Known about the structure:
Chain A: InterPro entries: Alpha-ketoacid_DH_E1_comp (IPR050771), DH_E1 (IPR001017), THDP-binding (IPR029061). The complex is a heterodimer. By secondary structure, chain A is α/β, with parallel strands linked by helices. Helices cover about 40% and strands about 5% of the residues of chain A. Chain A is built from 15 helices and seven strands. Chain A has helices at about 35-40, 95-120, 135-145, 160-165, 170-175, 210-225, 250-260, 280, 290-295, 305-320, 355-360, 365-375, 380-405, 425-440, 455-460; strands at about 150-155, 235-240, 265-270, 275, 275-280, 300-305, 330-335. The longest helix of chain A is centred in the N-terminal third of the chain and has 26 residues, at about 95-120. The radius of gyration of chain A is 27 Å and the shape is globular. Chain B is of the alpha/beta class. Chain B has two domains: about 60-265, Rossmann fold (3-Layer(aba) Sandwich), CATH 3.40.50; about 275-400, Rossmann fold (3-Layer(aba) Sandwich). Chain B has a seven-stranded mixed beta sheet with strand order 3-2-4-5-7-6-12, sandwiched between helices. Chain B has a five-stranded mixed beta sheet with strand order 9-11-10-13-14, with helices on both faces. A two-stranded antiparallel sheet of chain B has the order 1-8. In chain B, helix 5 links the parallel strand 2 and strand 3 (about 130). The longest helix of chain B is centred in the C-terminal third of the chain and has 16 residues, at about 290-305. The two termini of chain B are about 35 Å apart. Chains A and B meet through helix 6 and helix 7 of A and helix 6, helix 7 and helix 8 of B.
Amino acid sequence: xxxxxxxxxxxxxxxxxxxxxxxxxxxxxxxxxxxxxxxxxxxxxxxxxxxxxxxxxxxxxxxxxxxxxxxxxxxxxxxxxxxxxxxxxxxxxxxxxxxxxxxxxxxxxxxxxxxxxxxxxxxxxxxxxxxxxxxxxxxxxxxxxxxxxxxxxxxxxxxxxxxxxxxxxxxxxxxxxxxxxxxxxxxxxxxxxxxxxxxxxxxxxxxxxxxxxxxxxxxxxxxxxxxxxxxxxxxxxxxxxxxxxxxxxxxxxxxxxxxxxxxxxxxxxxxxxxxxxxxxxxxxxxxxxxxxxxxxxxxxxxxxxxxxxxxxxxxxxxxxxxxxxxxxxxxxxxxxxxxxxxxxxxxxxxxxxxxxxxxxxxxxxxxxxxxxxxxxxxxxxxxxxxxxxxxxxxxxxxxxxxxxxxxxxxxxxxxxxxxxxxxxxxxxxxxxxxxxxxxxxxxxxxxxxxxxxxxxxxxxxxx
Amino acid sequence: xxxxxxxxxxxxxxxxxxxxxxxxxxxxxxxxxxxxxxxxxxxxxxxxxxxxxxxxxxxxxxxxxxxxxxxxxxxxxxxxxxxxxxxxxxxxxxxxxxxxxxxxxxxxxxxxxxxxxxxxxxxxxxxxxxxxxxxxxxxxxxxxxxxxxxxxxxxxxxxxxxxxxxxxxxxxxxxxxxxxxxxxxxxxxxxxxxxxxxxxxxxxxxxxxxxxxxxxxxxxxxxxxxxxxxxxxxxxxxxxxxxxxxxxxxxxxxxxxxxxxxxxxxxxxxxxxxxxxxxxxxxxxxxxxxxxxxxxxxxxxxxxxxxxxxxxxxxxxxxxxxxxxxxxxxxxxxxxxxxxxxxxxxxxxxxxxxxxxxxxxxxxxxxxxxxxxxxxxxxxxxxxxxxxxxxxxxxxxxxxxxx
Lengths: 463, 403
């Protein structure tokens, strides 16, 4: 940022005046943290000079640059190995069998929905879609370890969060088809889900903008936690990819979250690619996790293909986030983006098919949990077949229902921009209505609920 | 005002603190070789006489006669304060009456570089009034998040020139939040973003800009620029109460200069009404913020010289703006001039002029004239040539009347 100055020019005359605050004679009554330390700052014989910018730094006589490349990479926490075996038998798995089965069913349901909707888009019945393949465990696992009242901000590849919290197949389909039952009133592209009841904010396409939102929301929750001691405390959780972490908003958010000590968990899905850009073109440090320390944030790296590790990490992060009134936590969940970036992307243009197949076969969150379930005799081939055919039918039914619905009323093109319609908007609505009525053959208004009449309804509403 | 001989006290004060004025009542008189100083012998381009301008309420009676004020306020007390104090009082009242209100930004805690948040941190605690890291996109994003969870944040951008890092958050997030969330009903309407704006005599490129036209192009935002302490207080309180995100731009040159009688108690002014400051029958001038004082001086000179009668309208809310008041006036006078500091192309004046052309075409007797900043940046020593001054407005009146 540039030179900051006051409304007055600094002139030599000011030197003769008593020391004042920037803009007048008033001295601040607020004591700052660093001011308290200043009194001990520099005695002549001090071993440490307390620079306000780095209070705990000691002097050294050796010229020693910190070389990140010499450091060992941050380890990745896991509970299961890739064969579904628990590694630390003593601690074991803190998930009940019944719950593990639900998680598994949700992951399978998500992957089947992804498969079908991807195909639907290929057939042109849907404008756009994004799959979660390879990252089902991160979304479903972390959502299952949070309180339902915790506020969540997503990027777009977290459909599992919605599914785990109880977003129904009908709600998914209504949003994807932007029909009259879509909570977003048909305004957003597919996959931009949102739900007030489930405390998940509506997704926007702009990358990383939700990260500072999560910091601000967590600050609001912190104040509300203090104001309502009887109500169970809440935190904010924010998901984003490793590509989004290169945006300025990531830096701004983590920094402000740390300085304001907000109860928030920042979950990075590091899946190796941002569209076609591999992580080697995205950053040169040790992933995203290594940045946490720089902001003074407790950080952990987790195996995203291990749903038990994801759950335990999230639970512990939530506990820590609420400690001492609040503090931010960063978790980097490692994964591999098995699917294409979106339906508008063919990922084999920039990576080997073999590499993808390898990841699909060798390690993915669904098969790993299935192996664990089978090891405990909770699951078998018959149950698998039954689950898959039932889920496929459920998805297709919801799909057909949603496809038959009309589009939302045209009036929703205008309302909701402001709390109330503006005078200017009224003029525009009247003009549009006039056009629609005089050129009826040019527009297909009947596929919108209520046709042209919905505009009249809007104009009749009280200002 | 006739030149006064400064008293010994004033002189000694000047030696101690030369940045304050020799003239105790007019705190913003420039001294020495200042970029905004007028040429010797100038008749039109003098310094603005904030002490006597009819745009400010110099008596308690004048302040309370404002019909927009609620009846109980009109029976109440007033006191003489400047614009930054009015902003401070509005923030204080909002913090006092609504525990959801938060005030934050860069250097807020000690009172702000323009003193708008003086003593708020000590009185309301640093949980509600606090410094943020130096990151505009971060603090605006933070404010949007807090607003979406039910708070009413008042974020400050230190200068309007530095709002651009936060542009993505304002345009793509704040403005679209309510619209894109649909029936979930989540919104960030509690948000107010305050920023000092406009030229200040020596602000050069990055302490002078008026980016209001960039915000008026965004559906979902309200853009407000007050011209005086009374307005700053009433409009800021309305902005904080309003359920739409508001960009509140404070002309920084007026922070100390504009002093007037302001009701002591809290009051709200409407966010969709322009104000007719002076009625006239030959010509309408539409402006907002600081240039209104320039217009007022130019009108006084022009009316004396040409015997015309000019109507002056303060837009106050730049978007959504009050088309009806402007059109009614132009239909009456048949001539219009729009004055603003920022550049002409695609500025606010373009929208006002186009609207007048569209809806008052048959009543127009002259083309709508725009008196605005030229198509350049505000180079330090060139400011007085770039920003509309009394001479340019005076000349525009002359040309439009003679057309």
